[in-house]
Structure formats: structure tokens, C-alpha cells
Amino acid sequence: MTRRLVMFAVCLALAACGRPLTGTERRFAATVQGDALAVDRVRVTDTALLSAFSMERPARPRTACQDRILPPPDGPVVSVSPGALVLFDRVYYDRSLYRRDFLQSYPEQMSLWHAMLLAHELTHVWQWQNREKTGYSPFKAAGEHDPGADPYLFELDGRGFLDFGYEQQGAVVEEYVCCRALDPEGERTQRLYDLLRPHFPDIARQETVARAGVVLPWDGAETRGICS
């Protein structure tokens, strides 16, 4: 994601209307960011822009929940395009990924991949809404996307949540959603919860959706003990 992309998104923001979060999306957000996020200000829209941007990065080690629920990469380097972009209170989804309701069957059923991406992007909105504390700006976030680097990779190494980069913070929240849904009693799940709770006091420790209702993006994923 480049500065050029951010500037183009600024132009989009002046014209796009977008939709508010649906009732089910709000219910899900309440279990993650909770009252720390002003959900009434959030707008979601789609754009054909994002698929025009791509970059190469090294394939990630298959250690995190969010990587192990996807098929393994074909080689040591992967080409990726941003699935979504946040500008202020507005979330832009690539048109191929956009849905009128990402969690329409929640809490009886939940697409885990959609829930994770939504949680990640809402974390960027939270960063903007709390920029006096986070120091967030769209240009700072765009600056993390250096060619060949992976700004989402993180290690649980004792740092506080705000000591991580902006994309890493989104990835931490995304990882917690994955772990909470698939391995709620896992040691990694608890460490992520402890890391997030000081900033999201309402974050739920247990997933509302039963394990049988969690829809995985890849049938070949081995989820037993995935975050233990």
C-alpha cells in the first residue's frame, strides 16, 4: 500500500457515501473493540481501486493462526494486494471482497476470514479515532509498507500493544479473533487477550459463535491446538 494509494483514497472519501455497520457487524465489533470504538461513525464501501495495487513479500512462516487456516503458499515469495484500506472512519473493501453484510448469520454462524478482516480494519478506525493516544495517521500507516517487507508480522515478545506498528496492531487483533474462535483455551489466546484488554476493556474472552458455526476459508486447515 503506497502513499499514492492513500492520496487516491482521499479523493474517494470526498465522494463516497458508504453504508453503516449492520446490526450483526456491530454485535461482533462489541466483542472485540467494544465501546472503545465509535461504531456509529464507521462507514463501509467498496472500490475497484485496490486490486490494481500489488506487491511481493516473503511467504510467512506457518506459525500464526491467521496463516495456518489458509492454504500454504506455492513458493518463498508471494504477490499480494490489499483487501481493504481505512481512511479516517471509512473502510474501503476491494470490490471482489465486499459484502452488504459480512456477518449476516452471526452469532449462529460466522465466516472466520471475514470476521478477522473486519476486526483488523476496525482496529485502524480505532487507531484514527484515538489518534491522540496512538499517534495514527494514514500517511504513517502507509509508510509501513516498504517494498519486500511484511508490516503485519509480529512476535509476542513482551511489548505493549501500542509498541507494535499500526499494521501489526491490526494483525494482533485479527490473530485474537482467530485464536478465540478455534482454540479459546490456548496459551497464545490468553496472551493475546492480556495484551489487548488494557485498550479494549469490553473485549470478550470467549467467542459467541459455537465452534460448529465457525466457517473456515480452507477445508484443509488443522485447527486442534492451533493457538496452544
From TrEMBL:
Q: Do the record's keywords include Signal?
A: yes
Keyword annotations for this protein, in alphabetical order, are: Signal
Q: Where is the signal peptide?
A: 1-15
Question: What protein name does the entry list?
Answer: DUF4157 domain-containing protein
Q: Which organism is it from?
A: Tranquillimonas rosea
